[in-house]
Write a structure and sequence with these properties.
By secondary structure, this protein is of the alpha+beta class. The protein is built from four helices and seven strands. The chain is globular, with a radius of gyration of 15 Å.
Length: about 180
Amino acid sequence: MTGTARRLLPSPTARLRFREMREDDLDQIAEMLGDPEVMAFYPAVKTRAESAEWIARMQERYREHGHGLWVIETHDGEFIGDCGLTWQSANDAPVLEVGYHVRRASQRRGYATEAARACVELVARELAPTLLTAIIHPANTASRGVAENLGMTHIDDDRAHPWIVRTVMGMQVAPA
């Protein structure tokens, strides 16, 4: 899709709300993406400049596809992380993925599952029927747990990267 897409946003949850990333989120995004624990299953942490590029890439995805990773925050405005929908590639085929990152201080409280579930509900309302995936480093048991909590199962192994075989979790999402 090219041009300007209709902008989507998941509905607020009991504890969280979603919004598009802005340039003034850079300090919090850079801290999260620069944290070795948060990024343990990525090739490397992101620099501040790479975090700024991350925000710009999400803003471009909002315009082109109507979705991307959104900032997740509490109803009081506390930054929790990001979560959303992006087009990825698994075995060289395009797939819609739900992705999530939670800052270290907010991990293990169910925020990723709560935010990702809101994204699944958005997919059911706006994009279904479709396959929704989560592409996960095979050692990332926490992320796999989130995917399983959503109802995803292991559907494939992505062998398109020379340095890793990634686990592809997935589920068919029916219209709401």
